Amino acid sequence: MAFDAHAHAGEFTEDAFVASASTDEYETLLPFPHRALGSIAEGGMQPDLCILRKAAAEGFHIGEIGLDRRYGGMEEQKKIFAAALSIAREYGRAAVIHIVKEYHTAAEILRTSGHRKILIHGFTGSAETARELISLGAVISLSPRAERTKSFRSLLALPFVTETDMMTGEDQRRTLSEWNARLSEMTGIDVEKRTVMIMQELLG
Ligand SMILES: [Zn+2]
Fold first, then answer.
1. Domain range 4-203, its CATH number among 3.40.50.1820, 1.10.3720.10, 3.20.20.140, 1.20.58.1560
2. Ligand 1 center from residue 19 Cα (angstroms)
3. Tens of pLDDT along 160-173?
């Protein structure tokens, strides 16, 4: 039984942690047992924090939240990210973190927040950054895109989980199963089983 550590809402499934980049997906996500509501488009928005708080109180995890240099407005992004993390911490929810080229700043904000139920989705940074994030309590999640990064081989020695970042459905299930098979062959570890165990702990 495989579990996708990060996907988006398509077909109903219990075997994926579905997240959103916008609070608009609140209704769509409701049926999924493992769901997270987030705000990242254009750097996240202040009014979304009220919606995230309401969702956290109702049992949603929080995410995608994070820092994305492509959107600009980094100071505002940092504030929203820190505020969303504190909501996750307050309600004991996992936070799904999206980071583009801001790993160092994100690590500082994570350290300050003290929240340790963290999934770093679609990780493409260095092994050194991965180790720093893991020491802060984070779980590192690799999508097939990780294979194109310089650090790919060294990341394989770390306790990662696997994701597709796709809409749930047939293509997503096939991609996950091929990705798990490939990584299991490369590492000699049952990556599928390990992802299930780590995600149970994170979401339980
Ligand atoms: Zn995603």
1. 3.20.20.140
2. 7
3. 999 999 999 999 99
Decide if pLDDT at 45 tops 80. Answer: no
Measure 63 CA to ligand 1 centroid, in angstroms: 9
- The residue among 75, 66, 62, 72 whose CA lies nearest residue 42 is 72
Kindly report, residue by residue over 3-37, the tens digit of the pLDDT.
Answer: 999 999 999 999 999 999 999 999 999 999 999 99
- pLDDT digits over 139-148, tens only? 999 999 999 9
pTM equals: 0.95
CA of 20 to the centre of ligand 1 (A): 7
Q: Name the residues around ion ligand 1, CB cutoff 5 A.
A: 165
DSSP string computed for 32-68: -SSBEE---GGG--TTHHHHHHHHHHTT-EEEEEEEE
